[in-house]
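User: two proteins, same treatment. go.

Assistant:
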Amino acid sequence: MRKIVLLIFLFAFVFKIIGQEKKEVKQLDSIQVHLTRALDSVLKNTPNDLNIIVLKDLLKKITPKPPKKSEEGWKKIGKFSLFFNQSAFNFDWQGGGTSNIAGNTALNYEFNYKRKSLTWDNKILADYGLTFLKGENFARKTNDRVEFNSRLGQRIGESFWNYSLFVNFRSQFAKGYSFSKDPDTDETIRTEETHFFSPAFIQIGPGILWKKNDNFNVNIAPVTSRMIFVDDRFTTVPDYVDGDYFGVDAGKSSRFEFGGSLAAYTKFKLIKNITIENILNLYTNYIEDPYNVDIDYTLNLNLIVNKYISGSFAFQAIYDDNATSGFQIREVIGLGLNYEF
């Protein structure tokens, strides 16, 4: 008897739940019908052009954007800068100083190629500057450099690492002089010490390149050949000692070195319109004094005033005991015109 009563209560409870669900379904259907009618009314009373705009906006939000394809082929960019500086002092000026006019030109041109996992980066750097001092019959150089860098890279898998092969050439445009005073006349005497292709440095070597992007990369080349070329007239003067002129032996016009090199490059925006560029090159000669590392570091700070006017600050430090026993320091500050192409 108890079982029958329990079954009756159970069936009654089930039928009650089913009835409630049917009632809720009817309520949901009723709500859906009212919403549909309201939406139809809004769409009928809204201009078709506005409905199309809203629909397109919704589709843009729903439809995922296709991934951007990496740019392939050649990419070229160049920048030419011209800077001037002038100082003048009259006869009554008591603070000291020499009137002068100075100018500096700079060219930075890149032409890079990319196809799939292969990259070929090329850069030409050229700088030349002169200053004219009052009372001297000749100009003095403030800057002189011509450099070409080429690097081939093949990406390893999907990582930032690449197999690489690099070539670097460095020299200068014009003659370089040392200056001294004539003890008898107190006039300035200049003595030629360098000129175009004397010296000239050529480095080539395979290696491994870590390249996160165009503005952050490090190239390690443990097997690097370096050739140094000079004019043999600088190595055949009387009493010349082997290695006194960029490491080249007496009577010779070239020097071969075998070693390893590391090149690092970073470029980032400091604040709006100001970018900082760091270039570091290290080289060690395995054949002679391998622990004596050659250092070439350059810091470039660029200020963009507008499309045609910019300012710059360049600092370079070179250590090469074949050239001199200490650091060679160069610093240039300028404000002038620039043209990008």
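Protein 2:
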Amino acid sequence: MAQADLLVDLFKSASSGDQLTFRKIAEALIQEEKRKGHRILADRLTKALRPDSAGANRSIAPKTNGGNGHQRELIYEITPERALDSLVLPEKIRDQIKEIVEEQHRAELLHAYSLRARNRVLLAGPPGNGKTTLAEVLAFELMYPLVVVRYETLVGSYLGETSSRLKNLLDYVRTQRCVLFFDEFETLGKERGDMHETGEIKRVVSSLLLQIDELPDYVVVVAASNHPELLDRAVWRRFQLRLELPMPSRRQLSRHIEAIGLRCRTNFGYTPETLAKHMLGLNFAEVEEFCLGIVRRAMLDKKTDDARTITKGKLEQWRDRLKPASNIEGME
């Protein structure tokens, strides 16, 4: 039965209260998504069909892939749980991520016109500004697993070992729809003209570039780098979308702080704008660490309804990391 017919029958059974038919059709839809390779979507539909799914706690622990031992050594797989709307991003970057998602979701239409969906994204910028989180968000929006490369097992000490492992890794990811994430990409993609690098590293870079070119467009490669100036020039050309994540503005920090307060149900005692003013210059990760420190203390002291005193104390502890001009005593 065509998927459109399944959806119509699903709605009919739901409106008539026929639970048995509803479940049979839902299970048929899940199997259809599995056949298409939409494993994450199929898993989410399966969980939603369970009676206790509404109250179930989602696990945030990394999930090891089900491949053989060699594959488990090279990667670990995460089920993404952060949506695009949960991030504070410049609108330009948000729009470009939405475009990538739309192209992937409508890839068959592009194929009909002999076009491919873009599937290579390079994220650059200072640490702590959301590159890893953005990779997870992209995987969540695509409903793909996030496959993270483990450099400690990928990079070998013997001639040709790294290139061989890299080939095994990329051969594995071809078998599924996924987001393949290379953090600190300069580890593999270094400039080949660097006289301090060995011939082995240069061979790895060449092998990596060729194999990335040959990946199908349903494998979305996301590479993140804190030092993009170290990347080989040919690496830059391989990525169709190159995004720089700058240090957050005061307005972005304010929205980030407000979102944390709402999510954790904690009143920091100061307005998000005031806290953002005194924390300008810190990155998203540092601000989140600061806010969660307040939340933990407020939870333990049962002062989540007004954590002003705790916030002031934490600011005192963070004084050396804040702007020199910050006047904690004069905060309003």
